[in-house]
Amino acid sequence: MEFLNQIKSILSYSIYKSSNINITIGLVTALIVAFVLTNLILKLIRLVVTRNLPAEDKNKFISIFQFIQYLVYIFVIMFTLNATGVNISVFLTASAALFIGLGFALQQLFQDLISGVLIIIDQSLHVGDVIEINGKVCKVEKISLRSTKAVTRNQRVMVIPNHMFLTEVLFNWTQNSAIVREDLTIGVAYGSDTKLVKEILLKVATRHDYILNTPSPKVEFSDFGDSALIFVLYIFVADAFSAPSIKSELRFDIDDEFRKHKISIPFPQRDVHIFNPKD
């Protein structure tokens, strides 16, 4: 009992004392213990969250985790001080206006950071993915915690705030596979040999270097149009970003083959009848 009283006396020894603050050895000890326990818990959480992440994404998450760690330490200090009898209302009153102002100023930044963390943890977006957002098709070049850098097909750099991936509709063309399907719509004149048209389209597609043979190209007789028989050629490519140039080359080849086989591509025509009531 005497030993416990001695320990209690040591812990209650004041290092600094004023009207509102009384810093004792027990308070300092409590802060040290709280810091050690908090540090161990945060390390365990970081280990669990980042264990399945790639090394590059793990480093990004660690940087934001350090920022969160500082905030947690502040709350631990405030809680420990309050639990040991220190009046912290003076600190809270003085810093309340500052915290409110910072909160409003950094609201957008926090949204971007949280979105960046979710992207990294969820692994819903990777460098090299071809995405479509707000009608723009681009390739992801870099993913950071605040924003994502992507390059469009005309080599313009887009810096996308990460919160847009949570608020806007995002199409990830290469999420499931790097192989994507593209299609070309071709109209030929009525009376054309439809089997020959199908044969030409498949031949042009299969001999192209950048079109995959597996899955193989397909031709669909889509519709009887107003001025043409409508065919759709489906192709599979491994590089979705270069699909427009591949489709352009196909159109040149299809036009050449149609000319050789005298298959015409019609243009819309309308018959205009003029009615004169006097006749």
From TrEMBL:
SUPFAM superfamilies attached to this UniProt entry: Mechanosensitive channel protein MscS (YggB), C-terminal domain (SSF82689), Mechanosensitive channel protein MscS (YggB), transmembrane region (SSF82861), Sm-like ribonucleoproteins (SSF50182)
Keyword Cell wall biogenesis/degradation appears in the UniProt entry: no
Predominant localisation class: membrane
Keyword set, alphabetical order: Cell membrane, Membrane, Transmembrane, Transmembrane helix
Boundaries of every Mechanosensitive ion channel MscS domain copy: 109-174
Pfam family name, one: MS_channel_2nd
Membrane topology designation: Multi-pass membrane protein
Transmembrane found in the keyword field: yes
Top-level lineage group: Bacteria
Alphabetical list of PANTHER family matching this protein: MECHANOSENSITIVE CHANNEL MSCK, POTASSIUM CHANNEL RELATED
Name this protein carries in UniProt: Mechanosensitive ion channel family protein
Organism: Lacihabitans lacunae
